[in-house]
Amino acid sequence: MIIYKYIKDFYKYDPEEEEFCKNNHIIFFKPNKKRLQWLENWLKEFTPPKIDCKEDITCYWRHFGTWGMYHPEDNSISICPFKIENAPGGLKGTIEHEIKHLKHPEANTMPHKNKEIYISNKSRED
Asked: Binning pLDDT at 50, 70 and 90, where does residue 9 land?
């Protein structure tokens, strides 16, 4: 089951995360007050997508960062929904993609590009 949570200061900005994204051509949104307000307003109107998932996975909402990240250390994902309609698969597809990363930890040691190809291929198999 997906558990959706918003904790305002749960994640801190990490310049290394931004640098990784830049080096791997991943869209990254810097934190700012305007985007924070946008997220808080968005969450008031938002209805989470229905996603079939047997495991308990927490999905944290962020106002900055990439559209999606996975966190195997606590079996969670984080999503920045800002302009996520431009992401491949949109919001639901991004959530499903990050869950797929959690389900395939064997990919964690792969270089980023190879890992994404591997996870995309697993998505087609499932």
From this structure: confident
Residue 105 CA from chain centroid, whole number = 16
CA nearest neighbour of 11 among 65, 50, 57, 74: 65
SS (H, E, C) the chain: CEEEECCCCCCCCCHHHHHHHHHCCCCCECCCHHHHHHHHHHHHHCCCCCCCCCCCEEEEECCCECCEEEEHHHCEEEECCCCHHHCCCHHHHHHHHHHHHHHCHHHHHCCHHHHHHHHHHHHHHC
pTM: 0.91
Give the strand order in the sheet containing 76-79.
2-5, 57-61, 76-79, 68-71
Domain range list for the chain = 2-125
